[in-house]
Design goal:
Elements: H1 2-27, H2 33-45, H3 49-68, H4 74-77, H5 79-97, H6 106-130, H7 136-148, H8 152-174, H9 182-208
């Protein structure tokens, strides 16, 4: 029964991540490096953003399979349904819920972005505290860390740097509106710290609700 509750909260948390992620995309004032790549490929291919996200995260799971081989377990495979749910919620929120919404002022877009990034940090914090599954990108970085010995934060930061360089280059080459903007910097400044604050509170609440791993 406890595990069922934990999985239910995980599903709810991932759905929240997808919803708030769509908020930041709709605000259009810049995205985190990985999400910026998702939006870039969406604009280049005309495929919906959430669908591109599903493909990108599935590639991250495949990378783990190639690197880990026999060490690849059902724990890693669980990232696939999580990625599917995330992509579906992004598509629904971005195109169906927010699609008709027109925000004419920068302040409005900024506030939408702020709600989105804080909401994302809260939701990702829930997933981290539950400790049932790892998000696909982080899972791929952890696999690289395990096999190379390079510290996780170094690998993760390197991925962000490569993503930023690639997105900026493609936007300039293809004449696409710049996706790396002030929102990217804001995200880098407040996402981690706010998630840390949320996780302290979430651990206490989840412990009382008997949702933490044994």
């Amino acid at each position: 029964m406890k595990q069922v509750k934990r999985v239910g909260v995980l599903i709810f948390s991932v759905a929240l991540i997808g919803m708030f992620c769509a908020f930041t995309m709709k605000a259009d004032i810049g995205l985190g490096p990985y999400d910026a790549n998702t939006k870039l490929f969406s604009e280049l291919t005309m495929i919906q953003i959430g669908t591109v996200s599903i493909v990108a995260n599935s590639i991250c799971v495949f990378i783990q399979l190639v690197i880990l081989k026999k060490e690849f377990t059902i724990f890693h495979l669980g990232q696939i349904p999580v990625s599917l749910l995330l992509g579906v919620v992004i598509n629904f929120t971005y195109y169906t819920v927010l699609g008709p919404l027109v925000i004419s002022s920068y302040v409005g877009n900024f506030l939408l972005f702020l709600v989105g990034i804080i909401g994302c940090s809260f939701s990702v914090g829930m997933v981290m505290v539950l400790d049932i599954i790892t998000m696909a990108l982080e899972g791929a970085c952890m696999a690289v860390t395990k096999k190379t010995g390079i510290k996780f934060h170094v690998v993760r930061q390197l991925v962000d740097v490569v993503c930023v360089i690639f997105v900026v280059s493609m936007c300039l080459l293809c004449g696409i509106d710049m996706i790396i903007r002030e929102g990217t910097i804001i995200s880098a400044l407040i996402f981690g710290p706010s998630m840390g604050i949320f996780m302290k509170f979430q651990k206490r609440v989840f412990r009382k609700l008997d949702l933490l791993k044994d």
